[in-house]
């Protein structure tokens, strides 16, 4: 039911009522049956110094001129008003206020009542009303104009009208709230000048709470009636009213205080604290008697007397009953307590409860649980006997902590209504701000060129046309009028116009980019998203800048949201459609190319020597789109670079292969075709050389490598992102592959983004060393999430994303990955989005197929090797003297001898590995080396694995099923073989002894401590063969020479390489291969 | 309040799954503080979110100055919500004041909770003999008078301090929610908070607890976490986060989410 205007007017201040009258007049003029929010808006806009208009002016979008936007607003408003049904009957004198408008008024009333300055006022009013009249209705709140505006803007109809004119209601609300020109977060948070008052507003406690503060009883708040401040007592009362467990035992540091205050409440018969049923309780405190009974003299006479008294009282009691307080439980639990007295006390109290049941309560307190526990240990049934209920007391009484504040709480305070605080709102603004897609840099370049042309050369006809056509039609009609204004304004308008054009351009290039370019690279727009989050301040700055600075427009306006719905111009559309044609025609071409590439790449692994293979440059790498200005509508040549590669015989895989380029005109292309192909940022130049390069860096994984290359080459042709999962052991090998791929395909190792999804996993030394090569590494201490990090990095340039332990991914990462796989886009939590074509995603997992296990009888396991630490190495020389006394005594030298004998026995034979085997067995026998190799047999891997899974993930089965899903969707799963460290160890030993033989020339034997061997293996694993070989050739060789010179090695001597504990210098700790070997 | 309590406190249940997770925000924030934690759990948990009655997003009229003098009233609210949603077992994650509320709720209704995760919890903020709570009474009074003098200034000063780390986003978010609270309520609640002393009753807790504590927290010294662990009655573990600040869910959501995942019962 519509409300009569008079009734509505009563709720409004004079100012607001005037606005309402005006609205009513508008409605009457138009012959409408009701006065709606739209009428109100129209009236608000037409007011002199209209605050709404002012607010709009401040929020206006810098894409359009102020006047254009206001014109648009007027138009859309009048159109909406026209749409309202006019009443058939004769004009109503005062069209009543519609429900929606009335609701808005009510809303603003409620809002206003909630504001603190008004709060006290209304409370006062209410009190007065209650005092002087029985009428207790809500006092009438006169709505101020500002509040009215705020709530009217909430009306969907109104916000639609504003939206059509390019305003956002929430912006206007903001602008309404902050009226000063300076804009600072503090202002945003509420200090607006409007609310500053000459004297601090009365607030809550400075009102009339003075003087009454303190004391245990009745702290009265001005508006709340009697305030007891004793929540604890109330709770005690609640417990006492129960049927069972009705005797409260207060527990807590302040329990004794709570008890005291409760008893006081009862004794003084303060009303309003205890429940109705308990009024008229009487209290008996037996604390002192208990104390006397239990302490020392064991005088239980007074206590007995007291209990008799209690019994008498209960029997003669007319009220609800008696409360017997036994005070602090500590007394009962004291060490020096008289045990007989205690027993008597406990049983007597229990009996009292049992006998008098409903009429008698016990009450007591204990500071901590421990005190109660002690009693409970002595009397396990006390809880039942006494019918106790434990009541945690967690806070002192309110008034104890200090008097209640009485002050002017803050000078000015604007509760920012609902709209500022609501989480959904925040979310929507942030996501709006960031939803747009980043352009790739080529497009950005083009775009910037055009913008430059625009700002230098002034108005370019076609662009302005385009811009106009991008505006809603009614805006176009408004344009000429705007231009006919005074020249000074025109100048300003021009700049705004320009910025509108720039936005048009931006849109255009965005859409082009989105359509054709999958590689999203960093564009300026990207950095703009961040300031967006800094709040509205930026927007303000931007506007100011925009009006001054034409050349900056390109950046300024990128985030303006009003433009979101501006469609790309028709001319762009045209181009797009024709470019699609172009794409399809070139697709045919590329498909033909792909075929040949495919056939080649499949041969690669089998081919031993490079046959000259013709290979297309993956079509994507070097196709340059013609650079053209948007106005030229002539035909464009499309260059398709077909790289013919004559590679694969060259030794260095990294040198760029010469390419000769075919420039072909696309025959099928029609005249005005803009065409731009996907710019692939990596090109699989020559799969074969790639293979070679990889094999050179990563040992023992030839099969895996060929599978990877195969996948990449195949996938690269279809211009998609590539997803490969590396499964199995050889952690470092996988990383190496990732790093190598980044270097070869993307040009630098910086293109590897490394994320270990198994965060708690601590780094082993070797991995730490390895990870130094990785520059882009996600760290859990980084504030953003993994997804945020990836989006940020990927938006800079396409990269290889290396997701270690992908099976451990959390939900958010899982979802993002799935989504990315499906849509080709990565979206982070804030709504930023990045295209991931041309990216390679490498996941790793240590899991194998469930049936497979990696248990094997290997001597050196990956885990051990990775755990190896760098230390300095020393050479010790021992001699094979059977009668050496030390040899007999110490197990260590025993070990040497054993080994030596074996070694001497078959030094020349090839089975050095067996000698190592013996070493190991010897170690097994001698307990001193237990921690080295022995427990680290393959079985341990299994153990750690299962262990990890049992406790790593709360939903392990869930994540497993996810992982299976994931595994099924990715392009390829590559199995890695375990790295064969034993063979490597063999090889190393051989190298060493060869080296020694070269130095000494005779048959002296070498022995390498397992720990040293681990270290060397780790080095080999980490770096490469060559580096270790070099190290042997140089460092070890030198050491041998030195040792030879010092001791004169002969056939009976044993050269032993051992770790040198404690003497490690920093430089040696750095790497795994020390620069010098000590001689002892 | 009664029937409309769910509405008044903006109770939301999101996500799907058998397990129920209650996320309870702390002093000065509202449920939006969990926004960045939430996505990690919605798939396999039903997550219950609600606002404390003192939060800025709750109509201040609901804040009854007589009722909310101790935390017990907040506990009542929590238990009421859980009962109204017919929740029989849940995992409870509470931050700051809500951690305390969780402890009390678990004492009263141990059967309701499978586990408590306490973030930045403290049984007592004031120092005492043999106990380091982090604050002296005089300091507190200073804070209170600063709050009274100029709430806005206090918020602007306190927010970065509480967030602890250089994360402008989190500071902004915390200032926003803190400022949304009506200052008299803020003051009242802070007094309540500084009045609480749970030390005597920790032993009553039987529910296993995970205590998540950041390395540097202006409100809670690291020793408090150890104190909690030693005195809580149930099985309890301490997870130290190597970051700063009292609001890890705002400043380092990812890290906290990982830690939470680990802490949740499986």
Automatic annotation (TrEMBL), chain A:
Keyword Transcription regulation included in the entry's annotation: yes
* Superkingdom of origin: Eukaryota
> Which keywords annotate this record?
Repeat, Transcription, Transcription regulation
Q: Where is this region: Disordered?
A: 542-586
What PROSITE patterns has UniProt attached to this entry? CLP_R
Pinpoint the Clp R domain residues.
8-182
Q: Where is the composition biased (Low complexity)?
A: 547-560, 567-586
* Entry-linked InterPro entries: AAA_lid_SMAX1 (IPR058954), ATPase_AAA_core (IPR003959), Clp_N_dom_sf (IPR036628), Clp_R_N (IPR004176), NBD_SMAX1-like (IPR058680), P-loop_NTPase (IPR027417), SL_signaling_regulator (IPR051650)
In the record, the note on similarity to other proteins reads: Belongs to the ClpA/ClpB family.
Q: What is this protein called?
A: Clp R domain-containing protein
UniProt source species? Rehmannia glutinosa (Chinese foxglove)
User: What high-level taxonomic lineage is stated for the organism?
Assistant: Eukaryota, Viridiplantae, Streptophyta, Embryophyta, Tracheophyta
Automatic annotation (TrEMBL), chain B:
What start and end residues bound the annotated signal peptide?
Answer: none
Q: Which organism is it from?
A: Rehmannia glutinosa
Source organism, top-level taxon: Eukaryota
- Output the lineage of the source organism: Eukaryota, Viridiplantae, Streptophyta, Embryophyta, Tracheophyta
Q: Which residues form a coiled coil?
A: none
- Assigned protein family: Belongs to the AB hydrolase superfamily.
AB hydrolase-1 domain sequence ranges: 21-258
This chain belongs to the protein called AB hydrolase-1 domain-containing protein
Q: Which SUPFAM superfamilies does the UniProt record give?
A: alpha/beta-Hydrolases
